Amino acid sequence: xxxxxxxxxxxxxxxxxxxxxxxxxxxxxxxxxxxxxxxxxxxxxxxxxxxxxxxxxxxxxxxxxxxxxxxxxxxxxxxxxxxxxxxxxxxxxxxxxxxxxxxxxxxxxxxxxxxxxxxxxxxxxxxxxxxxxxxxxxxxxxxxxxxxxxxxxxxxxxxxxxxxxxxxxxxxxxxxxxxxxxxxxx
Length: 186
Ligand SMILES: [Zn+2]
Ligand SMILES: [Zn+2]
Ligand SMILES: [Zn+2]
Prior knowledge:
Layout: E1 6-8, H1 9-18, E2 21-23, E3 31-33, E4 38-42, E5 48-51, H2 53-57, H3 69-78, E6 81-83, E7 95-99, E8 105-108, H4 110-115, H5 122-131, E9 134-136, E10 150-152, E11 158-159, H6 163-167
Antiparallel strand pairs: 1-3, 2-4, 4-5, 6-7, 7-8, 9-10, 10-11
C-alpha cells in the first residue's frame, strides 16, 4: 500500500469536518483514496459540493468561503495585520502577515484572522516600558535590542532605551530634569 494516497475513514471524516463540510454520501471505503470524489455539503450554507481529500487539503472548499485577495487584505487590516505575502486564496491556508502597528511577523489563516483570538505582543511590550518608567513615542521597533524612542515619565526627558535594558531594571538617570520653575515665578 502506497503511503499518503489513502487515509483512514476516521481521519477523512475529521478532515472533512475541519474544512467546514459534512459528508453526505452513502459510506466511504475503510481506506479513502485522497483523489476519491464524494458528496459533501457546507455546514454553514448547506451548498452541496463534490470534493475529495486533495481539494479539501488545498483549501478549495465551499465557494461561500472564497474571498478575493483585496477583500482578504481589508479584513486582515481591520484585525490589525498587513500582508507580508499575497493572500493564499483560501481561508484555511496559512498567510504570512505582520502587525500593522509594529511590523512583527506572524503567520495566521484568514479564519484565525477573523476569529481575532491572536493578537500581536506589542501592546504587552508597551506595558513593560510603562512599568519601567517610560512612555513609548513610536510603535515597538521590532526587537528588544533596538532603541525605542520614549519619554521618561519621571523627568519628562526624551530617551531611547532598549526594551531589553528596561527589562533588566535599568532606569533613566534623570540627568536633565526640566525646569521646575512654576509659571509666573520670577
Ligand atoms: Zn458554504
Ligand atoms: Zn505589533
Ligand atoms: Zn528620567
